[in-house]
Amino acid sequence: MQERAIETRRNILEAAAKVFDERGFQAATIADVTAEAEVTKGALYFHFPSKEALAEGVLREQDGQFPTPERASRLQQLVDTVMVQAYRLETDCMTRAGVRLTLDQRASNIDRKGPFERWADTCRELLEAGQRQGEVLPHVVPADTAEVLVGAFAGIQAMSQAYSNYADLSARVGALLRHVLPSVAHAPVLVSLDLSERRGEKVSAELLALHGEEPQRGRPVTVG
Amino acid sequence: MQERAIETRRNILEAAAKVFDERGFQAATIADVTAEAEVTKGALYFHFPSKEALAEGVLREQDGQFPTPERASRLQQLVDTVMVQAYRLETDCMTRAGVRLTLDQRASNIDRKGPFERWADTCRELLEAGQRQGEVLPHVVPADTAEVLVGAFAGIQAMSQAYSNYADLSARVGALLRHVLPSVAHAPVLVSLDLSERRGEKVSAELLALHGEEPQRGRPVTVG
């Protein structure tokens, strides 16, 4: 794709994320997105033939994010992955739109399982690696623990959104990890983990320094 | 209220639950509900002056459900409460509509925190009682654990809905409890808990026998 076409496509996706985030999938219209992006209907349809295609575009943007840095402790890497996602939800409109689309039971024509599956895969792989190196208890079934974590995270972000518009998300996610990890990890690993509320912000800054620029596509927004 | 008015009100709420469950709050219209309930607009407005009032009516119906029977083990009572809710989600349209309204980030004019708070209160009280009688570990903060459980449950039901239309909900909720309870309970209590998949159905049958009729208002539906 030409540079200008890439720019237009990104601009449309950012506008779509904002509209889906504010209005939800069902209430959002193509006209809302063209108005927000300041593009013609023709330009939009060139990149995205339908509202479903737009939603899938927003969902796929989540995959373009850089993974969290490798850690000697795979469980710390798992914690970092979860805490960075909490921080992105607090600060990034594209991430919020992706999560809301995934949880939107009305958006039934789009593949809502995909993001759950990708997240569960990432968590499962880290738990498997942790088990191989003896951090994770032998009775743990990584796939089961991964699905508990991903499902629980999805609900805790919804609760945080309802209670505080995400202001307490990092604290709630920290509480989830403190409740689940003792069933999963050896005690000496547990005490060495950094589960503090600022962990997500810290690792995001580390990613920024590593990769030069924010990997996220959405416009940063202030959530109060 | 006269018996007939009570009957009409219940009929309207059941129709509203069905419509909210199928279409979501934002897309649902008063006309959908009057058509489903086979009542006039005037009859509906007599009981519910707005769509928001209807949604709040559906949410309040959740409170009319009988609590799970008292158990010597407060943690078993907590497990029963959670497993019965999973079973209701699988089988009862009114419960599903209530949960979806609570998680619907578009339904911003209605009080979505209420159901989270009531559920968290119930869990907190059982954890406090469990702590008083030595079942719950001394370091546990019942309010924190309650909010983790309620938030996690909300997400796990969404994941189960996306994956299997609730067919695997009891299994997923059992996995959540097996991951969280070891951080909360003394080991001898843990091994005595019934966390089996059929627990919700079993306790629901017990409630039915105790109270003579299903406490739920919604029409039972088959979820496949």
From TrEMBL, chains A, B:
Keywords: DNA-binding, Transcription, Transcription regulation. This is ScbR family autoregulator-binding transcription factor. The keyword Transcription applies. Residues 6-66 form the HTH tetR-type domain. The keyword Transport does not apply. Coiled coil: none annotated. SUPFAM superfamilies: Homeodomain-like (SSF46689), Tetracyclin repressor-like, C-terminal domain (SSF48498). Residues 29-48 bind DNA. It comes from Streptomyces polygonati. The lineage of its organism: Bacteria, Bacillati, Actinomycetota, Actinomycetes, Kitasatosporales. InterPro entries: ArpA-like, DNA-bd_HTH_TetR-type_CS, Homeodomain-like_sf, HTH-type_TetR-like_transc_reg, HTH_TetR, Tet_transcr_reg_TetR-rel_C_sf. Gene3D superfamilies: Tetracycline Repressor, domain 2.
